Amino acid sequence: MIEVENLTKRYRGGAAVDDLTFTVEPGRVTGFLGPNGAGKSTTIRMMLGLARPSAGRALIGGRPYAALARPLTVVGALLEAGDLHPTRTAREHLRWLARSNGIGERRIGEVLEETGMAAAAGKRARTLSLGMRQRLGVAAALLGDPEVLILDEPVNGLDPEGVIWIRNLAKRLAGEGRTVLVSSHLMSEMALTAAHLVVIGRGRLLADLSTEAFVAAHDGSSLEEAFMRLTGASVEFRSGGAR
Ligand SMILES: Nc1ncnc2c1ncn2[C@@H]1O[C@H](COP(=O)(O)OP(=O)(O)OP(=O)(O)O)[C@@H](O)[C@H]1O
Questions:
Q1: Which of 10, 12, 33, 41 to mutate to test the pocket of ligand 1 (most atoms within 8 A of CB)?
Q2: What single string gives the DSSP state of each residue in 144-168?
Q3: Which of 140, 23, 154, 1 is nearest to 73 (CA)?
Q4: Which of 31, 50, 99, 199 could be cross-linked to 207 through a Cys-Cys bond (beta carbons 3.0 to 4.6 Å apart)?
Q5: Is the pTM of this model over 0.80?
Q6: In the sheet that 55-60 helps form, which strands lie side by side, from edge to edge?
Q7: Given the CA of residue 39, which atom of ligand 1 is nearest to it?
Q8: Mutate to test the pocket of ligand 1, among 4, 42, 182, 205 (most ligand atoms within 8 A of CB)
Q9: Cα separation of 190 and 182, whole Å?
Q10: Does 54 sit in the ligand 1 pocket, CB within 6 Å?
Q11: ABC transporter domain: from which residue to which, for each copy (predicted)?
Protein backbone atom coordinates (compact mmCIF):
# COMPACT_ATOMS: atom_id res chain seq x y z
CA MET A 1 0.00 0.00 0.00
CA ILE A 2 1.08 3.59 -0.61
CA GLU A 3 -0.20 6.29 1.73
CA VAL A 4 0.11 9.93 0.79
CA GLU A 5 -0.72 12.26 3.67
CA ASN A 6 -1.00 16.03 3.22
CA LEU A 7 1.96 15.83 0.86
CA THR A 8 3.24 19.22 -0.27
CA LYS A 9 6.23 20.37 -2.32
CA ARG A 10 6.87 24.06 -2.72
CA TYR A 11 9.34 25.46 -5.20
CA ARG A 12 10.10 29.15 -5.66
CA GLY A 13 7.45 29.37 -8.36
CA GLY A 14 4.74 27.99 -6.05
CA ALA A 15 3.46 24.60 -4.91
CA ALA A 16 4.09 21.75 -7.36
CA VAL A 17 2.24 19.41 -4.97
CA ASP A 18 -0.32 20.99 -2.69
CA ASP A 19 -1.67 19.12 0.35
CA LEU A 20 -2.31 15.81 -1.44
CA THR A 21 -3.91 12.96 0.49
CA PHE A 22 -4.79 9.60 -1.06
CA THR A 23 -4.12 5.88 -0.65
CA VAL A 24 -3.06 3.42 -3.34
CA GLU A 25 -4.54 0.01 -2.50
CA PRO A 26 -3.09 -3.39 -3.38
CA GLY A 27 -4.74 -5.76 -5.84
CA ARG A 28 -5.69 -3.27 -8.53
CA VAL A 29 -3.97 -0.92 -10.95
CA THR A 30 -4.35 2.70 -9.88
CA GLY A 31 -3.94 5.29 -12.62
CA PHE A 32 -2.28 8.52 -11.54
CA LEU A 33 -3.53 11.17 -13.93
CA GLY A 34 -3.17 14.85 -14.54
CA PRO A 35 -2.26 17.27 -17.30
CA ASN A 36 1.36 18.25 -17.97
CA GLY A 37 2.86 19.93 -14.94
CA ALA A 38 0.12 18.68 -12.58
CA GLY A 39 2.69 17.36 -10.12
CA LYS A 40 2.65 13.62 -10.85
CA SER A 41 6.40 13.19 -11.18
CA THR A 42 7.09 15.37 -8.15
CA THR A 43 4.67 13.27 -6.07
CA ILE A 44 6.35 10.06 -7.25
CA ARG A 45 9.80 11.48 -6.54
CA MET A 46 8.73 12.19 -2.96
CA MET A 47 7.31 8.66 -2.60
CA LEU A 48 10.73 7.33 -3.62
CA GLY A 49 12.79 9.61 -1.41
CA LEU A 50 14.19 11.50 -4.43
CA ALA A 51 12.66 14.80 -3.32
CA ARG A 52 12.04 16.00 0.20
CA PRO A 53 8.45 17.04 1.02
CA SER A 54 7.93 20.64 2.21
CA ALA A 55 5.13 19.21 4.37
CA GLY A 56 3.27 15.94 4.82
CA ARG A 57 4.63 12.49 4.01
CA ALA A 58 4.44 9.48 1.73
CA LEU A 59 4.62 5.94 3.15
CA ILE A 60 5.39 2.74 1.27
CA GLY A 61 4.18 -0.34 3.12
CA GLY A 62 3.78 1.83 6.23
CA ARG A 63 7.26 3.37 6.17
CA PRO A 64 8.93 6.34 4.55
CA TYR A 65 11.22 5.25 1.69
CA ALA A 66 14.31 6.38 3.61
CA ALA A 67 13.51 3.89 6.38
CA LEU A 68 13.58 0.87 4.02
CA ALA A 69 16.70 -1.26 4.52
CA ARG A 70 16.54 -2.98 1.12
CA PRO A 71 14.27 -0.67 -0.86
CA LEU A 72 14.18 -2.70 -4.10
CA THR A 73 12.58 -5.59 -2.21
CA VAL A 74 9.70 -3.33 -1.11
CA VAL A 75 9.14 -0.99 -4.03
CA GLY A 76 10.16 -1.12 -7.69
CA ALA A 77 9.97 1.97 -9.85
CA LEU A 78 10.22 2.82 -13.52
CA LEU A 79 11.04 6.50 -13.83
CA GLU A 80 10.90 8.71 -16.89
CA ALA A 81 14.58 9.57 -16.93
CA GLY A 82 16.28 6.21 -16.56
CA ASP A 83 19.74 6.12 -14.98
CA LEU A 84 21.43 3.78 -17.40
CA HIS A 85 25.20 3.85 -17.68
CA PRO A 86 25.79 3.98 -21.47
CA THR A 87 28.55 1.36 -21.68
CA ARG A 88 27.11 -1.07 -19.13
CA THR A 89 25.22 -4.03 -20.55
CA ALA A 90 21.65 -4.76 -19.54
CA ARG A 91 22.80 -7.65 -17.32
CA GLU A 92 25.55 -5.56 -15.75
CA HIS A 93 23.03 -2.82 -14.96
CA LEU A 94 20.81 -5.30 -13.13
CA ARG A 95 23.77 -6.87 -11.36
CA TRP A 96 24.85 -3.44 -10.11
CA LEU A 97 21.37 -2.78 -8.70
CA ALA A 98 20.99 -6.28 -7.26
CA ARG A 99 24.28 -6.17 -5.36
CA SER A 100 23.32 -3.23 -3.17
CA ASN A 101 20.01 -4.85 -2.27
CA GLY A 102 21.24 -8.34 -1.45
CA ILE A 103 19.57 -9.89 -4.50
CA GLY A 104 21.15 -12.99 -6.05
CA GLU A 105 22.28 -13.72 -9.62
CA ARG A 106 19.42 -16.16 -10.26
CA ARG A 107 16.84 -13.41 -9.94
CA ILE A 108 18.61 -11.39 -12.66
CA GLY A 109 18.03 -14.22 -15.14
CA GLU A 110 14.40 -14.46 -14.09
CA VAL A 111 13.59 -10.78 -14.63
CA LEU A 112 15.49 -10.72 -17.96
CA GLU A 113 13.33 -13.65 -19.04
CA GLU A 114 10.13 -12.12 -17.69
CA THR A 115 10.65 -8.85 -19.58
CA GLY A 116 11.72 -10.41 -22.86
CA MET A 117 15.25 -9.06 -22.42
CA ALA A 118 17.14 -12.36 -22.14
CA ALA A 119 18.42 -12.23 -25.73
CA ALA A 120 19.53 -8.59 -25.30
CA ALA A 121 21.19 -9.10 -21.89
CA GLY A 122 24.68 -8.58 -23.32
CA LYS A 123 23.88 -5.37 -25.22
CA ARG A 124 25.26 -2.08 -23.99
CA ALA A 125 22.67 0.38 -22.71
CA ARG A 126 23.46 2.99 -25.36
CA THR A 127 22.62 0.52 -28.13
CA LEU A 128 19.20 -0.41 -26.74
CA SER A 129 16.04 0.92 -28.40
CA LEU A 130 13.64 2.98 -26.31
CA GLY A 131 11.31 0.00 -26.00
CA MET A 132 14.17 -2.21 -24.81
CA ARG A 133 15.27 0.43 -22.32
CA GLN A 134 11.73 0.50 -20.94
CA ARG A 135 11.79 -3.28 -20.63
CA LEU A 136 15.13 -3.09 -18.82
CA GLY A 137 13.63 -0.45 -16.53
CA VAL A 138 10.78 -2.81 -15.74
CA ALA A 139 13.26 -5.66 -15.16
CA ALA A 140 15.04 -3.43 -12.63
CA ALA A 141 11.74 -2.57 -10.95
CA LEU A 142 10.89 -6.28 -10.63
CA LEU A 143 14.33 -7.35 -9.36
CA GLY A 144 13.46 -7.39 -5.68
CA ASP A 145 10.04 -9.00 -6.27
CA PRO A 146 8.47 -5.94 -4.57
CA GLU A 147 4.93 -5.64 -3.25
CA VAL A 148 4.68 -2.09 -4.61
CA LEU A 149 5.34 -0.95 -8.18
CA ILE A 150 5.41 2.63 -9.40
CA LEU A 151 5.54 3.23 -13.14
CA ASP A 152 5.94 6.87 -14.21
CA GLU A 153 4.64 7.42 -17.75
CA PRO A 154 5.65 3.89 -18.79
CA VAL A 155 4.13 4.00 -22.27
CA ASN A 156 5.80 7.25 -23.39
CA GLY A 157 7.48 6.61 -26.72
CA LEU A 158 6.47 2.95 -26.94
CA ASP A 159 5.02 1.31 -30.03
CA PRO A 160 1.58 -0.38 -29.84
CA GLU A 161 3.09 -3.75 -28.91
CA GLY A 162 5.03 -2.13 -26.07
CA VAL A 163 1.93 -0.28 -24.87
CA ILE A 164 -0.06 -3.52 -24.71
CA TRP A 165 2.83 -5.27 -22.98
CA ILE A 166 2.99 -2.62 -20.22
CA ARG A 167 -0.81 -2.67 -19.86
CA ASN A 168 -0.94 -6.45 -19.41
CA LEU A 169 2.07 -6.48 -17.11
CA ALA A 170 0.54 -3.84 -14.81
CA LYS A 171 -2.70 -5.82 -14.64
CA ARG A 172 -0.92 -9.10 -13.97
CA LEU A 173 1.17 -7.60 -11.15
CA ALA A 174 -1.96 -6.14 -9.55
CA GLY A 175 -3.70 -9.50 -10.02
CA GLU A 176 -0.94 -11.05 -7.90
CA GLY A 177 -2.04 -8.77 -5.09
CA ARG A 178 0.61 -6.08 -5.53
CA THR A 179 0.10 -2.34 -5.28
CA VAL A 180 0.55 -0.84 -8.75
CA LEU A 181 0.57 2.90 -9.46
CA VAL A 182 0.85 3.97 -13.10
CA SER A 183 1.13 7.65 -14.00
CA SER A 184 -0.03 9.01 -17.32
CA HIS A 185 -1.53 12.06 -18.93
CA LEU A 186 -3.45 9.82 -21.34
CA MET A 187 -6.96 9.19 -20.09
CA SER A 188 -7.77 6.70 -22.84
CA GLU A 189 -4.80 4.49 -21.95
CA MET A 190 -5.59 4.61 -18.24
CA ALA A 191 -9.22 3.66 -18.89
CA LEU A 192 -7.91 0.39 -20.39
CA THR A 193 -5.31 -0.28 -17.69
CA ALA A 194 -6.52 1.08 -14.37
CA ALA A 195 -9.37 -0.07 -12.13
CA HIS A 196 -9.01 3.03 -9.97
CA LEU A 197 -8.06 6.61 -10.78
CA VAL A 198 -6.39 9.36 -8.80
CA VAL A 199 -6.57 12.61 -10.76
CA ILE A 200 -4.59 15.72 -9.83
CA GLY A 201 -4.30 19.22 -11.28
CA ARG A 202 -1.95 21.99 -10.18
CA GLY A 203 -0.78 19.74 -7.38
CA ARG A 204 -4.24 19.27 -5.90
CA LEU A 205 -6.48 16.21 -5.73
CA LEU A 206 -9.33 16.48 -8.26
CA ALA A 207 -10.75 12.95 -8.12
CA ASP A 208 -10.15 9.61 -6.39
CA LEU A 209 -12.62 7.05 -7.71
CA SER A 210 -13.03 3.77 -9.59
CA THR A 211 -12.62 3.90 -13.37
CA GLU A 212 -16.13 2.45 -13.60
CA ALA A 213 -17.56 5.33 -11.54
CA PHE A 214 -15.66 7.84 -13.66
CA VAL A 215 -17.03 6.33 -16.86
CA ALA A 216 -20.58 6.14 -15.45
CA ALA A 217 -20.46 9.76 -14.25
CA HIS A 218 -19.46 10.91 -17.70
CA ASP A 219 -21.81 8.78 -19.72
CA GLY A 220 -22.24 10.17 -23.20
CA SER A 221 -18.99 12.07 -23.43
CA SER A 222 -15.66 10.59 -24.39
CA LEU A 223 -13.24 9.86 -21.57
CA GLU A 224 -10.82 12.42 -22.97
CA GLU A 225 -13.58 15.04 -22.88
CA ALA A 226 -14.50 14.09 -19.33
CA PHE A 227 -10.85 14.30 -18.29
CA MET A 228 -10.50 17.71 -19.97
CA ARG A 229 -13.58 18.95 -18.16
CA LEU A 230 -12.31 17.70 -14.80
CA THR A 231 -8.84 19.14 -15.23
CA GLY A 232 -9.77 22.14 -17.39
CA ALA A 233 -9.36 24.73 -14.66
CA SER A 234 -5.95 23.42 -13.70
CA VAL A 235 -4.19 23.00 -17.02
CA GLU A 236 -0.85 24.71 -16.86
CA PHE A 237 0.30 24.57 -20.45
CA ARG A 238 -2.07 25.12 -23.33
CA SER A 239 -1.21 24.99 -26.98
CA GLY A 240 -1.28 28.36 -28.71
CA GLY A 241 0.04 30.13 -25.63
CA ALA A 242 -3.46 30.80 -24.23
CA ARG A 243 -4.10 30.42 -20.52
N1 LIG B 1 13.09 21.06 -9.42
C2 LIG B 1 12.08 21.91 -9.67
N3 LIG B 1 12.19 23.23 -9.44
C4 LIG B 1 11.18 24.08 -9.68
N5 LIG B 1 9.98 23.70 -10.17
C6 LIG B 1 9.80 22.40 -10.42
C7 LIG B 1 10.84 21.43 -10.19
N8 LIG B 1 10.35 20.19 -10.52
C9 LIG B 1 9.08 20.38 -10.97
N10 LIG B 1 8.75 21.69 -10.91
C11 LIG B 1 7.45 22.28 -11.29
O12 LIG B 1 6.46 21.59 -10.58
C13 LIG B 1 5.30 21.42 -11.38
C14 LIG B 1 4.91 19.97 -11.45
O15 LIG B 1 5.84 19.25 -12.26
P16 LIG B 1 5.81 17.66 -12.46
O17 LIG B 1 6.95 17.29 -13.34
O18 LIG B 1 5.72 17.02 -11.13
O19 LIG B 1 4.44 17.45 -13.23
P20 LIG B 1 3.90 16.18 -14.03
O21 LIG B 1 2.46 16.05 -13.66
O22 LIG B 1 4.77 15.01 -13.81
O23 LIG B 1 3.99 16.69 -15.52
P24 LIG B 1 4.30 15.92 -16.92
O25 LIG B 1 3.05 15.18 -17.28
O26 LIG B 1 4.54 17.08 -17.84
O27 LIG B 1 5.50 15.06 -16.70
C28 LIG B 1 5.60 22.06 -12.72
O29 LIG B 1 5.07 23.38 -12.72
C30 LIG B 1 7.10 22.09 -12.75
O31 LIG B 1 7.56 23.16 -13.53
A1: 41
A2: T--SEEEEESTTTT--HHHHHHHHH
A3: 140
A4: 199
A5: yes
A6: 14-24, 2-11, 55-60
A7: 18
A8: 42
A9: 8
A10: no
A11: 2-227
Q: Is 201 in the pocket of ligand 1 (CB under 6 A)?
A: no
Which amino acid belongs to residue 46?
Answer: M
Does any ligand 1 atom lie closer than 6 A to the CB of residue 9? no
Ligand 1 site, residue 185, Cβ cutoff 6 A: yes
Residue 222 has what pLDDT? 73
Q: State the Cα–Cα distance between residues 120 and 105, nearest whole angstrom.
A: 17
- pLDDT string in tens for the chain (243-residue length): 999 999 999 999 899 999 999 999 999 999 999 988 999 999 999 999 999 999 999 999 999 999 998 899 999 999 876 677 888 999 999 999 999 888 999 999 999 999 999 999 999 988 998 889 989 999 999 999 999 999 999 988 788 988 999 999 999 999 999 999 999 888 888 989 999 999 999 999 999 999 988 888 776 667 778 888 888 776 655 554 444
Complex ipTM over 0.85: yes
Sign of the CA dihedral running 49, 9, 133, 159: positive
For ligand 1, atom 5, the nearest C-alpha belongs to 11
Kindly list the structural domains of the chain, giving each domain's residue range(s) and its CATH number in brackets, ordered by start: 2-74+147-236 (3.40.50.300), 82-145 (no CATH)
Residue 36 Cα to ligand 1 midpoint, Å, equals 8
Q: How many CB atoms lie within 10 A of CB 21?
A: 12
Is the shortest distance between the CB of 39 and ligand 1 below 6 Å?
yes
Nearest protein CA to atom 23 of ligand 1, as residue:
37
